[in-house]
Design brief:
It is a single chain. With 412 residues, the protein is mostly helical. The chain has one domain. Helix content is 64%, strand content 2%. It has 16 helices and 4 strands. It has helices at 2-7, 12-33, 45-68, 78-95, 110-114, 130-154, 159-177, 204-229, 232-242, 244-249, 254-280, 290-303, 309-328, 333-347, 351-373, 387-390; strands spanning 190-191, 195-196, 199-200, 282-283. α3 packs across α13, α4 crosses α11 (254-280) and α13 crosses α15 (351-373). The protein is globular. The model is unreliable at 393-412 (pLDDT under 50).
């Protein structure tokens, strides 16, 4: 059942993406652990960590593309789900410190000792176990998204109003987590992690393992998203995106479809945050900043909304450019980011992947038309289409009379 569901995700574009990801997941850790440092093929540990962070950002962009590109929900609050997943993992990592902290308390994290907390808050219980923390990584963002979506979608809040509400949600969480009495470290957040699952978090092997885990999570979530978008459910989501009122008139419970994909997307963002924290080494309220959510939307727009592969590509390219610009030209990075978004909006409205796909389709059409005009080929049964269009072509339905009888087709 599960294999047949994931098999729907396979096509040429998905195959290329999976092949590239497999090569990256294998080669990057191998070049870091087994290639000598003096070799030009050696990948330093800091580069492994940096690329691992890019993969978590790509997973976050994939989550946003699922709801925005295929369901038309422009979320400006996915940073909240990302940060909640990160805090869940950070709480587990803090509980693993034990007596190795600055104050040597076996139970209370250092910031609680500094703030004169006497007991561990009840919502920290269970985070000394990895399975419980992993469950909370999925449950906390998913539950928040479900409650928020239940009220928003049943009230038929859509468009810019929904986007503003999602941004208000993440800003409210930002203000709440800044408070010291919340029990999450206040402005400083959670940091000074020692190990994860008993492995030194600073060791090269652990860094390589976290990179591979981020890549595998990205691949798995990509397959799930690809399977959904190529199924009947995906066709309904696209119908909701393009004509929500008409889809509702046809009898579909639109709010149920939106709630499902919204909750799934939030859980994916939580996984991205959980993988981000041990690689970066800190989680603080700054991750809730509304600007972070807006930046994710830019990644998706640059790569190509509604393509999945484009979201991953956009996240990696923009963050690589950010790394380079902040080191070489730190004063103009924000201007470059804004200019990039304006350029994409004006000249590449379908993003990199969408524009390339449309250009390739047009080239094939011209080539087939040219060959047919010269008499060197047969006319195509139907014009070639982009992969995104092919996934949504309905099967032909024979014409029927009012009584339901099929009209016979005239013989040629």
């Amino acid at each position: 059942m599960m294999s047949s569901f994931l098999f729907r995700a396979m096509d040429a574009r998905a195959g290329v993406f999976l092949a590239i990801m497999a090569a990256v997941i294998i080669l990057v850790p191998a070049c870091n652990l087994f290639v000598p440092e003096e070799s030009p093929f050696h990948v330093p540990t800091y580069a492994v960590t940096l690329m691992g962070k890019y993969l978590t950002y790509a997973l976050l962009a994939l989550a946003v593309d699922l709801v925005w590109g295929y369901c038309g929900i422009l979320s400006l609050g996915h940073a909240a789900f990302f940060a909640l997943g990160g805090y869940a993992m950070g709480m587990y990592l803090m509980r693993q410190i034990g007596t190795r902290g600055v104050y040597g308390d076996p139970i209370l994290p250092d910031f609680m000792v500094f703030l004169n907390w006497q007991d561990l808050p009840w919502y920290w219980y269970g985070f000394d176990m990895f399975w419980f923390a992993a469950l909370m990584v999925l449950l906390v963002p998913g539950l928040l998204a479900f409650i928020f979506g239940w009220f928003a979608f049943r009230s038929r809040v859509t468009g810019v109003y929904l986007s503003i509400i999602t941004q208000a949600l993440t800003y409210a969480l930002l203000l709440a987590f800044f408070r010291n009495d919340m029990g999450f470290g206040g402005n400083n957040g959670l940091t000074d992690f020692k190990d994860i699952l008993g492995f030194d978090i600073q060791a090269d092997t652990t860094r390589a393992g976290l990179f591979a885990a981020s890549g595998l999570a990205l691949v798995l979530c990509f397959l799930i998203c690809r399977s959904i978008t190529r199924s009947k459910l995906g066709k309904v989501l696209v119908a909701v995106r393009d004509a929500e009122s008409r889809t509702r008139f046809l009898g579909y419970r639109v709010e149920h479809y939106k709630l499902f994909v919204w909750t799934l997307s939030a859980m994916m963002a939580g996984i991205a945050g959980a993988l981000y924290v041990p690689q970066v080494g800190i989680i603080n309220p700054g991750e809730f900043a509304p600007a972070n959510s807006i930046e994710v939307v830019i990644w998706v727009a640059v790569g190509g909304r509604g393509t999945l592969v484009g979201a991953v590509l956009g996240a990696v390219l923009v963050n690589f450019a950010k790394t380079w610009f902040t080191a070489a030209l730190p004063d103009i990075w924000l201007f470059a980011l804004g200019g990039l978004f304006v350029f994409v909006t004006l000249f590449l409205p379908k993003g990199i992947v969408g524009t390339v796909s449309d250009g390739w389709t047009a080239l094939r059409q011209r080539r087939i038309s040219s060959d047919f005009g010269e008499g060197s080929g047969d006319p195509p049964a139907q014009p070639p289409q982009s992969p995104a269009a092919q996934a949504n072509v309905p099967e032909p339905v024979p014409a029927t009379s009012r009584a339901g009888a099929v009209h016979p087709q005239p013989a040629e």
